[in-house]
Amino acid sequence: CMIFTFFAACTKEKSSSPIETKAEVDAFENDEKKENKNGVVPFEIEQIEWRAEEGIVEGKRKITFNYTNNSKVSILELKITFREKSDMAPEEKESIYQYLITEFSLDEEESEKMKTLDFAISAEGEQLVKPGEKSSNLELNYFDGYYDVKKIAHFDQVVPDIATIRYVFENKIHTAYYDFVGKSYTKEEITEDAFYWTNTPLGDMIPKPNSEVVEKYLLDSNEYFGFTAWGMNFEDFEAYKELCIKKGYSVDVAQWEGYYIAKNIEGYHISLNFDEEKYSFDASISIPEEESL
Asked: How big is the chain by its Cα radius of gyration, in Å?
């Protein structure tokens, strides 16, 4: 398999003994600075150790893309675009394009349009990956989406171009970019709360999830509130469902694995939906139908 890694081959173990001399103090401070040497974001791109390799997902052969978060911040979303190598042979590019035309049954218009593009691959996934944790089977597609990468040899023909990272720092969600060509970081000024919750009365009608990150989903109004809770496995989803049942949402129930809808005796309606690929669940609550008329 083809493995790319931007992680130091060895790490320096810090002593647990007291720091006494000036030289020891300077050495300790320099070690700390190395963890945020760019001065823009609280991590280094080298701390995101990623790889693409052949694997089997849900009984189908595909190229999987995963990363280990070796930083000290939680990562909510990672996207990396890859561009064709500068020395990619024309015959190799033509061979890949002919494979894509056949494999995905592209029509003449789609084929001709594709041939005008530089070869590219994108990796993308939304999962809350905490420090020291590993992501699970992110999407790896030709160009900017649509078709899964099928051959590891195709991945050998690209190099990383731009990374987009959404991460959690000081209770805010930030968005940053890394340019692999210019070796530089940029960060958006706009942030959002890492834990969003409505200020309407609906916020008291549904339990708050035990999650580090909660984002607004669809709407937040006096009639409807929806949210996405990140970093939740199926057991977490089931536990949250039980909290809702204990809160009285057990009328007119419809449920199957990973999904639950119900009302309480007052007619307030909830909907819960688990996403096994993103390790998250969406939840919503709405007022009784007669009150919304």
From this structure: 23
Residues of the chain below pLDDT 70: 1-36, 291-293
- Side chain identity at residue 231, one-letter code: G
Token pair 């958006």 is at which residue?
188
Q: What gap in Å lies between CA 144 and CA 142, rounded to an integer?
A: 6
Hey, how many other C-beta atoms are within 10 angstroms of the C-beta on 173? 21
Q: What is the pLDDT of residue 12?
A: 33
C-alpha 177/C-alpha 196 separation (Å) is 24
End-to-end CA distance of the chain: 59
SS (H, E, C) 84-131: ECCCCCHHHHHHHHHHHHHHCCCCHHHHHHHHCCCCEEEEEEEEEECC
Q: Do the Cβ atoms of 255 and 245 come closer than 8 Å?
A: no
- What distance in Å separates the CA atoms of residue 290 and residue 286, rounded to the nearest whole number? 11
Question: C-alpha 242: how far from its chain's center?
Answer: 27
Task: Using CB atoms within 10 Å of the CB of residue 227, give its burial: 0 to 12 exposed, 13 to 18 middle, 19+ buried.
Answer: buried
Token pair in block for residue 170: 């000081």
CA–CA distance, 165 with 178 (Å, rounded to integer)? 8
pTM of the model: 0.83
Q: How far apart are CA 259 and CA 25, in angstroms?
A: 55
Residue 42 DSSP label? S
pLDDT score recorded for residue 58: 75
The token pair that represents 292 in the structure block: 């919304």
